[in-house]
Amino acid sequence: MILCNKRDGCCVCVCYEKRRREEKRSSSVQQTNGTNNSTRTGANSNRRLPDFLQSVNLKYVKLGYHYLITHLLTLLLVPVMMGILVEVCRLSYQDVMALWEHLQYNLVSVLLCSTVLVFVVTMYAMSRPRSVYLIDYACYRPPTSEFTVPFSLFMRQSERSGSFDTKSLEFQKKILERSGLGQETYLPPGMHEHPPKLTMAAARAEAEEVMFGALDSLLAKTKLNPKDIGLLVVNCSLFNPTPSLSAMIVNKYKLRGNVRTYNLGGMGCSAGVISWDLAKRLMWLRPNSYALAFSTENITLNWYRGNEKNLLVSNCLFRMGGAAMLLTNRASERRRAKYELLHTVRTHKGADDKAFCCVYQQQDEAGEVGVSLSKELMAIAGNALKTNITTLGPLVLPVSEQLLFFANLVARKVLSMKTKPY
Which of the residues 139, 149, 231, 245 could staple to 291 if both were Cys, CB 3.0 to 4.6 A apart? Predict the structure, then answer.
């Protein structure tokens, strides 16, 4: 049946005819065998193949509908333009000269209309936001394998630390096996020592290793001079030292004095996308500029050393890493850019108490600090994603799909028709 897709439905018809003949033959045999065989006839009829030919035809009908709605304005303008062209071709030399004399006598009106038209087009072009492009990106990858933490090493280090009881160790092992993490994730150097070195200096060393490693790779790929960077947005939820992470980058790469720097903290995993949106909106006010967005998380000072299960989950899921992205609104960079940033939408669920507390930094009874991940996290994230998709839909869906959705909505809500949601 796989070959049927290459024959525009012809093989499907042949297979169906063969299938019908076999079903007729089997039904005639079953009728002579009595009532027990009639059950088999019903089972065979329920196992009939779907009508592939009809589905193919509906597919082409839907494609034609999308093409018609998408190019409706063009299709309507073609006859008008053809009519104008026919009328222009019918003009004689005397008609052209008469039109020229008419324009000469109304030169002021022509100049005024032309000026207004040029002004409107110019204002429209200037008011439109500039396109923002993602030139390239780079993810941090340690130069050596000394930071690698397979599951066995993770559990051995947890046992040697002496901070966890037997139940906590079993719980961490179970979470690791179900987490989807591979055997080549990384933890910072301080976590490999015995006992673990969880100090401010070790946390700074981790941040420098991740940030400078990813940025060196990005600048090498793009061959960009660091002094050309006009905007810098850094995102790290749990580690916000003084001087800031953005100041560390400015000092390392000697960025220019008028660079605009921003630090996002305490905003969770979504702050990576928020940093893109912030850079995009800032570049609307700064034409022909480059923006550097960096997103990371710091493990060293946020490693939980207690036995509460909801705080232990973050130990098993979060690892060492970061990503750097170079954005620009220069039209000359369009060709080498990998992506164009078209739409960004954001939904804030902080007004809901459950959403507010689903990821919460707190202390346990022993005074150990950790990040609590509640069981409702996936459901809350799903609701936020649903809201974002609903907001993003009108921005990205073609007009044909929006019309179908509107017609389905009217049929269900206004006309009370029992139809499936589109």
Answer: 231
What residue has token string 């947890």?
158
Q: Give the CA angle between residues 15, 19, 21 to the nearest 5°.
A: 120
Taking the C-alpha atoms of 198, 199, 200 and 206 in order, what is their torsion angle to the nearest 10 degrees?
-50
229-235 vs 260-264, strand pairing mode: parallel
Stretch among 189-193, 201-205, 247-251 having the lowest mean pLDDT: 189-193
User: In whole angstroms, what is the distance from residue 212 CA to residue 93 CA?
Assistant: 73
Q: How many other CB atoms are there within 10 angstroms of residue 212's CB atom? A: 17
Task: Note every long-range contact of 343-352, with CB atoms under 8 Å and residues 24 or more positions apart, other chains counting.
Answer: 343/392, 343/395, 343/396, 344/273, 344/276, 344/277, 344/280, 345/388, 345/391, 345/392, 345/395, 346/274, 346/277, 346/388, 347/384, 347/387, 347/388, 347/391, 349/380, 349/383, 349/384, 352/380
Q: Which of 291, 274, 278, 286 is nearest to 231 (CA)?
A: 291
Close Cβ partners of 281 (under 8 Å, ≥ 6 residues apart): none
Q: How many helices (H) and strands (E) does the chain have?
A: 15, 8
The structure tokens listed for 80 are 């008008």
Residues 59-78: pLDDT tens digits? 556 666 666 777 777 778 88
Closest CA to 136 of 328, 407, 421: 328
- The contacts of residue 179 (CB under 8 Å, 6+ apart) are 316, 317
Q: Decide: 190 and 199 in contact? Cβ < 8 Å.
A: yes
Mean pLDDT calculated for residue range 178-195: 86
Q: Distance between CA atoms of 120 and 124, rounded to whole angstroms? A: 6
Question: Would you say 302 and 239 are in contact if contact means Cβ atoms under 8 Å apart?
Answer: yes
Question: What is the pTM (predicted TM-score) of this model?
Answer: 0.71
What is the gyration radius of the CA atoms in the chain, in angstroms? Answer: 33
pLDDT digits (tens, 9 = 90+) for 364-377: 888 888 898 888 88
Contact yes or no for 54/33 (Cβ under 8 A) = no
